[in-house]
Known about the structure:
Number of helices: 9
Order of helices and strands: EEEHEEEEHEHEHEHEHEHEHEHE
Shape: globular
Amino acid sequence: MAQAIVLRTYGSSEVLTCESIDVGTPEPGALRIRQTGIGVNFHDVYVRSGLYKTLALPGIPGCEAVGVVEAVGDGVEGIAVGDRVAYVTGQYGAYASHRVLPAALAVPLPDAVSDETAASNLLRAMTVEMLTGPVCTISSGMTVLVHAAAGGVGRMLCQALAGLGATVIGTVGSQKKAEIAKASGCAHTILYREVDFTKAVSKITGGQGVDVVYDSVGADTFAGSIEALAFCGHLVNFGQSSGPIDPILMSTLATKSLTISRPILFHYLRDPAQYQAMAGKALAKFASGQLQAPAPTPIPLEEAARAHDILESMTGGGSLILIP
């Protein structure tokens, strides 16, 4: 019998309970893997709370993990027992010690990338691939504002943007996080608890505003993000850690010919070829050092509730990993 975190009702972290499950053997086209590390993301919090009702209950949450292949179903090619693989999926089920996984989701893990790095950061790195590619093309010379610049996605997003030649402005909650953001590529940091970030952006940009805002915070920053944009600017909202966003009038956008997008990573991963390509690029950047991730904090699988509490308290700022 395997162990899994089962969600039976929406609510606080206390609804995450550890139960025994029967994994079984893989059907044709599938694998059974023994998981060595499981990522913890804000998406998981949204699912647990009921903000995202995308997991049928009762169900096993979790969108990414790394493991070792234990069994291979008929018709699977290119993957063997003993291989290290990583995956990201919108079908959930990652919060478990073992699982059966469609072989098309398994991405070979390069030797230079540790289980811990991939398990806790592949989804984030693929999110960065999406945000700086199909969602919004970034060119050298752009000025970009990143909220939560020292967070898990934020620091990798800043690395990628700086690598593309953008001038990156990051909002952070403390001087310590400002140092992290600067080390990740931010040319300017704003301590949003001490100053109005919209006024700070205006000062930094000489009143012009920024070309793009990446906002994963939501309710607390959305109006200010709109204000901080330059004419013809683009706001990318990809999270709501402070709560849902109120509806916005089209006339508000028309004042500066603004555009808004609200991407969900899994919508960009429906094509298996694109999924493999994005995952491969992300892992290659970890292997080469183009992307650097903080060492994750390990937490036992059965203490998933504690991991969610840390994430929601915003005291982590790095990576969390569940260890079966």
